[in-house]
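User: Show me sequence and structure for the first protein, then do the same for the second.

Assistant: Starting with the first protein.
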Amino acid sequence: MTDKTQVLVVGSGISGLTSAVYLAERGHAVTVVAREPAAESTSVVAAAITGGPAFADPAVLEDEWAPGDLMVRWHRAGLTELTKLADAPGSGVRLGRGRLVSSQPGTVTPEWEAGLPGYRLCVEDERAGFPLAFEVTMPVVDMRIYLDYLIGRLRAAGGSVETGELASVADAAAQSPVVVNCTGAHARTFAGDESVFAVRGQHVIVANPGIEDFLFEFSKGPRQAVIVPHADRVVLGTTADKGEWSLEPDEEQTEHILRRSAELDKRLAGAEVLGVEVGLRAGRPTVRLEAEKVGDALVVHNYGHGGVALGLSWGCAADVAALIERS
C-alpha cells in the first residue's frame, strides 16, 4: 500500500475510532462511517477501566478464550497508551485506585500480578465480602469525553466521521480499496459471522456522593458489581446477558444494581439516579483480527473483543495498520 491509502473504517465505537486515529496519524486518508454517532455507541456505555493482560471479562467471553501471548501484547499496548493519556488535557483518562474482586476464590498468578499496576492483595476486612480482592492502579476512562477526544485527534490528522448505513462487508468493499470492519456485535449480520453474539450490559448512573476509588467484580456469571466514579457521577452495574439484543432498560435489573451497590458502599444508598444505560458487547469465542480480499478491496476485521475492547483497542489498532501496510 502507498503511504496515503484511502481507508474506510466501519463503526464509531472504541475499536473503530482508535483504529481510525492510529491510521490517520500514520498518514492514511481515513473516513469513519457508522449508523449511529459515537455518543450513541455501545462504547459510551462502558464503565470503564482497563489494566493488565489477564483483565478479561469472563462473563462476556467464551470459556476457551484464555489470555495468550497475543492478548498480553494487546493489553500491554493499551495500558501503555492509556497511561500516557492520563496526562493529556481533555482526554477523559485518569489513573485511579481501586479494587478488583471475585466471588470465586483463587490466587493471583505471577502473570496476573505482573500485568496489574500497583497490585496489592487485600486483607480480609478490605474484601467487601469477596473471597478474592486486590488493589490496583489503572487508567479510568470517562467514555463520553474520551470518544470526543479521539474524534478530535482523527479530525486533526485529516480524517472524518460520517453517519451512514452500510449493509455488508461487500457493500463497504465496493466503496473503498481498504475497509476496516469494527462493527462489534453487529458483525454477526454485517460480516455474516454467526459466531458473534450480543452480550447485553446495563448500567445505572447516579450522582457521586463522594466516591473516589472504583470496585470492579470479575466473577463469572450474568451479574457483576461495578462501582466506577467519574467526577460528579458514578457508573454502577453490571449485567452480562448472553444472546440478549434488547436495548430497553430492565427495571428489575436497575433495582438489583442499586441495591447491590448500596450494600457494597453505604454512601450509594439513596443516591440520585441520573439515568440507565444499555449497550451490546460483542461476544465471540476469539477476537477476529485478520485480513481478507473482498473483490478488489482489502478488508481487515477487528471485532469480537467482548467487554475489554477499550483495553485491547490500541494494540489491535497497531495490528490493523500492520496488516494494511504490508499488503
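Switching to the second protein now.
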Amino acid sequence: MAAIIATAELRTSGLRATYRTAGDRGVLIEYGQQFPVDLGVNFFVHAAARHLNTHPVRGILEVVPGLRSLLVYYDPTVIEQAGVVAELEACHQDIPAPASLVLPSRRLRLPIAFDDSTSREAVNRYRISTRPEAPNVVDGNNIDYIVACNGLPDRESFYARILETEWWNAFTGFYPGLPSLLPLDPRSEVSAPKYNPARGWTPEGAVALGGPCLVIYPIESSGSYQIFGRTLPISALTRRPRAHRIDPILIYPCDRISFFRTGEAELIELRRQVFEGRYDYDIEPGEYAVAEHFTTAKDERVAAETERRRAARQAAHELVKIP
C-alpha cells in the first residue's frame, strides 16, 4: 500500500486533506499545515468525527480525532480502502466552513493550586535521579522556566494567562483520558519545550505545559510536560459515587475547561471529598458556536495584542536553553 493514498482541497473549508495508509485497517487524514497550531482546523476535525458517528458507514468501525488529524478504523472484509476514502470525501463535502460549526461542548470548572508541593516533589525527584543540570528545573520548579520561555515579567502574569480563558480540549490521548488543551482566547497562548529525557514520575492531577498544549495527568505516570500546578482527579478507574457518574473519564473532546485559583490546603480538602464520594464536579452541558472564537480572534485589538505576545514569546525562546 502507498503511504499517501490521495490529497484533496476541501471545498467548504479551504483546507488541504492528505489521506495516509495507517496499517491494513486504518486511514489517517491530516488537515491543513503542521505549524502553526490552528484551532479552526481542530474544529473541522471534530465536526468530521461527529458527522461519521451520526451518519454511520457500513464497515467503518471507529473514528479517533487528533489535533489536526482523523484516524479511521475499518473492516477490510466489508469496505475497501478506496471505499473509505470515498466516504470521507463525501463526509467532507457535507461539513460547513469552520466558522459556521456548532459542536457539542460541556463547560467544566476546575480548581488549580499553582506551585504545589506534590508538583515540586516530581520536579525534585527528576533533578536528583535523572538530570541535575536540567535548564527547565529552576529552584526546584518548572514555573520560572515557563515564565522565561514566554517572555513574561513574573509568575503572576503566567497564572493570569491560565485563569483568563477557557481551554478547549483539542484531543484526548497519550494516556487514556489525558486532555490536550488549547486556549480559546489567543491572547492566552503559552508554550514551552518538553523535558529531555522524560520524568519517571508525574502525580495524578498535575497540570503541565508542553509545546502549546496544557495537559492534566489522569494517572500517576512518566511525563515530559513542564509542571506548574495540580487540580482534581479527572479519571475514576474504580467506581466512586458522584465523581464520574457514567464515564470513568471526566473530560471529553471539545469540552471547555476554566480554572479557578485555590490554595494547596483547600485543594487537598477538595480532593479528599472526591475520593470520599462527596464532591460534585461543576459541569454544564451545552454547545459551542465556533463563530465565537473567530469573532474574538479577528477583533483588531485582540489580534494586535496576540501578535505582540507571540513576538515576545518568540524572542524569549531564542534566549532560553532547550532541555
